[in-house]
Automatic annotation (TrEMBL), chains A, B:
This is PadR family transcriptional regulator. It comes from the Bacteria. Gene3D superfamilies: 6.10.140.190, Winged helix-like DNA-binding domain superfamily/Winged helix DNA-binding domain. Transmembrane segments: none annotated. InterPro entries: Tscrpt_reg_PadR_C, Tscrpt_reg_PadR_N, WH-like_DNA-bd_sf, WH_DNA-bd_sf. It holds the Pfam family Vir_act_alpha_C. The lineage of its organism: Bacteria, Bacillati, Actinomycetota, Actinomycetes, Propionibacteriales. Residues 92-174 form the Transcription regulator PadR C-terminal domain. Residues 7-80 form the Transcription regulator PadR N-terminal domain.
Amino acid sequence: MALEHAILVSLTEQAATGYDLARRFDASIGYFWRASHQQIYKTLARMEADGWVSATIEPREGTADKKTYAITDAGREELTRFTAEPSPREALRSDFAVKLRGLADVTAIVEDTRRRRADHVERLDRYEASAKRHYPDPDAVEERERGAYLALRGGILSERMGIAWCDEILDQLETRSDR
Amino acid sequence: MALEHAILVSLTEQAATGYDLARRFDASIGYFWRASHQQIYKTLARMEADGWVSATIEPREGTADKKTYAITDAGREELTRFTAEPSPREALRSDFAVKLRGLADVTAIVEDTRRRRADHVERLDRYEASAKRHYPDPDAVEERERGAYLALRGGILSERMGIAWCDEILDQLETRSDR
DNA sequence: CCTTGCCATGCAACTAGTTGCATGGGTACG
DNA sequence: CGTACCCATGCAACTAGTTGCATGGCAAGG
C-alpha cells in the first residue's frame, strides 16, 4: 500500500492536518495518487497507531479537535524501507481500453475519446505551467526538488502520450466512417 | 466496475471457462486489465446470477464440474449500455512516482528505474511483435478488429512513454551523481 | 441576516481486489 | 513410478477504496 507512503512523503515536506493532506492530494501529489478525505483520516489513524506519525492536538469547542500530524523517526525509517524495495508494476486497469477493445458503438467511443483528449490537454497545460513556474531551468533543478521535478515530468509525458493515443483513435474511427 | 465488462468483451469473441478467461487475462486482455482466477470465478458467478452470461455444465467425476460461459442478450445489452456511458478517468496510482517524489535513496531509485525500464522494453517488444503479426498493415485493419488494434496501440504508446520517462530519470540521477 | 464556501473531523455500509489455501484429474518426461 | 506442469474449480479471511451521511465553526458578500 502506498497511500501511507504518499502521506509520509507529503509530511516530510511539511506537517499537516488530514484536511491539508486531502487538498494536497487534490493537487500536486494527486498527479500520481488520488485519495478521498475519508480514506486519509482512516489511514492517518492507523499510521498514528503504528507510530509513523505523531499528532499535535488543538482542542476546539463545539466541534472535533484539530490534529496536525508530523512524521516520526519510525515513519522516516519506514519510508526508507519502502524506497529500497522494488516497486511492483502498476496493475493497469482501463475502462476505456476495455470499451475500445469491445468497440460496441463507434459513435459513443468517438465522443468519449474527444472528452478524454480534452481532459488530457487540460492536465498537460496545468502540468506544463507548473513545470515552467517551479523549474524554469530543468538542468538547474535543486537536489531536494529533483524527485518532484521528475515525477512531474512523468505526468507531462503521460498526458502527451494520452493525447497521441486519442489522436490515433480519432483518426482511425472518424475519417474512416466519414468516407 | 469494468472486470465484468472486460469478461463480456472476451466472451463476445469466444465462449470460455473461468480458467480460459484467467489465461486470456494473463495475455491480450491483460494488456489493460489484470484479474486473478479467484476474482474471475467470483465475478462469473455474480454475472450468471444477473443473467449476463449463461453456463453450459459438463459434469466431471471426482472433481468440480466444468462450466463454459457464453454471453447472453442481456449481457450484450449491458455491454452497449456500458459503452455509451462516459468512462471515468483512471485513478492513477503509482508506487514508483510516490517513491520518486520522496527521493529518499537515489541508489535504490536508480536501480528500481533500471528494472522498470527493462520491463517496459520487454513488454514493448511483445506488443510490437503482436502488432506486426496480427496487423501487418495498420491501414487495412478489419472493421471488427479495429478496437483490439487500437487498444494494442495504446499499450505500445504507453510502454514507449514509460521507457522515455525512465531514460529521463536515469539521465538526471546517474550522470549527475557520477560527476 | 442569510447563504455560500472554506476549514475540519469522522462513522457506517458497501464493493472490489488480494492472499492463502484446498481439491483433484490428466499428460508427458525421465 | 514419481514428479512436474497444465486443466479446472472454488472458499475464507483480509485489505483497500468508494459512497453516503453527519457535524459544526468561521468569514465574506449580497
